[in-house]
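Supplementary Methods, section 5.1.

A reviewer requested that the exact input to the structure prediction be made available. We therefore reproduce it here, unchanged from the version used in the analyses.
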Amino acid sequence: AGAVRAPLSGSAEPPARCVCYGLGRFSGCPVARAQLAFLLLLLPDRRFLRRLSPQVPPGRCSLFDPAFSAREAAALGHLGLRLLPENEEGKHDVEGSATLFYMVHCGKALYNNLLWRNWSAGALARMVIVGNSFKGIEERLLSRILERDYSYIAKVLKGTEEVALPAHPRYLDTFNDTSVHWFPLQKLKELSPEVWDFTEEPTYQDCEDLEIIRREERAGGHGPA
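The structure derived from this sequence is encoded token-by-token as follows.
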């Protein structure tokens, strides 16, 4: 938790909300349970208001995963957390409020959609993302594939600060390749004006390894990938 708090200690606007995507079936998956426990560590509990920020109570933390069962949804409610009412496909607007996005091991399209939805220097500067390393994505994908399928990740790389979570032998599969990302306003302003000109919504028509549950897939009765 300290690895997440440290980059935000000098922030002028600490997160006031939290959004969690892709947690998974924590009732039967130890990895998902550990990730849920870590999320709770980042929020202030009722006795010790000393976590990430006292501005992020559990009631302002919203989650979505199409795999959640009714019992899991009830358990999250008992913990004081909220469920998002629909599948946003990652397209969540920060709406002028500093927001922590907790997206451990999510598909690249979710990160790309999130960046697209908030594609302005002012909005990106209010975001912190705990999730798959952007540097790792850049290293593993051919540049032409990254720029074609995940163009918003590609364009924001030079405006991103990233710190990897420290490795722990007990949780190698739980938080491997996970980093804290934030977007300093000054770095964003140094990007070329052309970076901000293209704002077309991603479609992923040619993407071969798309890891995302689309709204229409759930409406059509398809299960989670």
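Residues 17-196 form a domain with the Rossmann fold fold (CATH 3.40.50). These observations are discussed further in the main text.
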